[in-house]
Specification:
three-stranded antiparallel beta sheet; 2 domains
C-alpha cells in the first residue's frame, strides 16, 4: 500500500507535468519548443494576409523564411495564429485602430519575443561575457533580419564583404589588412561565440588552446628544444616554453590577431 506521502508526491508531479505540457508549444518547422506565444490583452489573431495589406514588402520577403511557417495551435486541429503574429502577437487591436494603436510586441526593442523560441541563446546571453542584449544596449535585430530570406544576415548586408554583420560595430577588427589572419576568411565565429561565452572577449576557447586548434605544434627532428608552430620554428618550447609566459596574443608576440599592416607574423 502506498503511503499518503508517496500519493501526494505522485499527484503533485502529475499536476506539474500537465501544467508544463500546457505551457510548452511545439514549433511546426524546427525541433525546438516555445514557452508561450506573445500575448496582447484583448487582441485576437487576424492572419498574415491581413498584415500584408499595410506591410506588403515585409510580408513578401518574410514568406520565404522559416519563421513564416511557425504555427500557434488552437483547439483541436485549428491553427490559432502563424507567421507575423507568432513573433509580434495577435494583431486585431492594431488593425482595428488603423495602425495607430501600438499594442503589438516589437522584437526590435525587446528580445523576450525571440527568447520564447531561442532558449539556448537566452542562456548564452546570461554568460559572463556576452553582447549587451539583455542590458538593452542592442537587440537581436542589430545582427539579424527576422523578415529576410536569410535570418543570419543583417538588414542591408553587402553579401560580398566578409564578416559584414560584425563589422557594423567592430570596424577596426574587420577592416582589410596588409598581412591578414587567414582565420578571418572563415568568419569571426571561428574564434568567437557571438552570443556569449565563459571566456574573455567571447572566445570559443581560453588561452593557447584557441590558437593551437589551427597552429599545431610539431617537434623538430633536428633541433632539440625547437617546436614548429605552423611552418615557423619557435625556439624554447617545451617545459619552459614561451607559452608559459602567457597566451600567443598576450605575451607580447602575436598581438595583431585580426591582421597587421606592418608585420607578417601579426605583430604591431
Amino acid at each position: 500500500m502506498n503511503s499518503p506521502r508517496s500519493s501526494t508526491t505522485v499527484t503533485v508531479a502529475a499536476i506539474g507535468g500537465a501544467a508544463l505540457g500546457a505551457l510548452i508549444i511545439s514549433c511546426a518547422t524546427v525541433d525546438r519548443v516555445v514557452l508561450a506565444p506573445p500575448m496582447i490583452p484583448g487582441a485576437k489573431y487576424v492572419g498574415m494576409d491581413q498584415c500584408a495589406l499595410c506591410h506588403e514588402k515585409e510580408v513578401k520577403n518574410f514568406k520565404l523564411t522559416e519563421h513564416a511557417r511557425i504555427q500557434i495551435p488552437g483547439e483541436g486541429p485549428r491553427v490559432e495564429g502563424e507567421g507575423c503574429e507568432s513573433c509580434h502577437g495577435p494583431g486585431s487591436l492594431h488593425v482595428d485602430s488603423g495602425g495607430d494603436r501600438k499594442l503589438i510586441v516589437n522584437p526590435g526593442k525587446s528580445p523576450e519575443a525571440c527568447f520564447q523560441c531561442h532558449l539556448d541563446k537566452n542562456a548564452e546571453f546570461s554568460l559572463q561575457y556576452h553582447h549587451p542584449v539583455k542590458e538593452g544596449r542592442m537587440s537581436c535585430v542589430s545582427c539579424h533580419d527576422p523578415h529576410g530570406e536569410d535570418i543570419l544576415k543583417p538588414k542591408g548586408m553587402l553579401v560580398g564583404r566578409v564578416n559584414e554583420d560584425c563589422a557594423q560595430c567592430h570596424r577596426e577588427q574587420a577592416r582589410p589588412h596588409v598581412y591578414e589572419h587567414e582565420a578571418m576568411r572563415e568568419g569571426c565565429t571561428a574564434c568567437h561565440n557571438v552570443h556569449g561565452s565563459i571566456n574573455p572577449k567571447m572566445l570559443t576557447e581560453r588561452d593557447n588552446n584557441l590558437c593551437l586548434k589551427c597552429h599545431a605544434q610539431v617537434a623538430s627532428p633536428t633541433l632539440p628544444g625547437v617546436v614548429s608552430i605552423g611552418n615557423m620554428p619557435h625556439a624554447g618550447f617545451g617545459p619552459t616554453s614561451f607559452l608559459e609566459q602567457g597566451t600567443c596574443f598576450s605575451a607580447g608576440c602575436h598581438t595583431a590577431v585580426h591582421g597587421s599592416d606592418i608585420n607578417s607574423h601579426l605583430r604591431y
